[in-house]
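SUBJECT: A protein chain and its fold
Encoding: whole-number codes for local backbone shapes
RECORD BEGINS BELOW THIS LINE
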Amino acid sequence: MKQLLHGCNQSDQAKAAYCHKLLALYDLADELNLSITELAIGYILSFDDIHVHIPGAREVTHLIENLNAASKGALSGDIVGKIDDIQRI
């Protein structure tokens, strides 16, 4: 997926900004040695106000990956802050 984002159409400013954010999230996940799924689930688990999170799983392997990601728990406040910074790009 990350490789596909490098070829994003830069002529559309909104799409380019979206691609830039996604690449930044993938880079952060790589930096933390996490999959993008682990980063996303860890982010959701970082908010006490979110009581239910239902990740999609089309295959048993997706369910296992989601469970493994959830078992790693919430992200640190510093990492949540980095993700929030990326959202503001």
Observations:
- The longest helix spans residues 13-31.
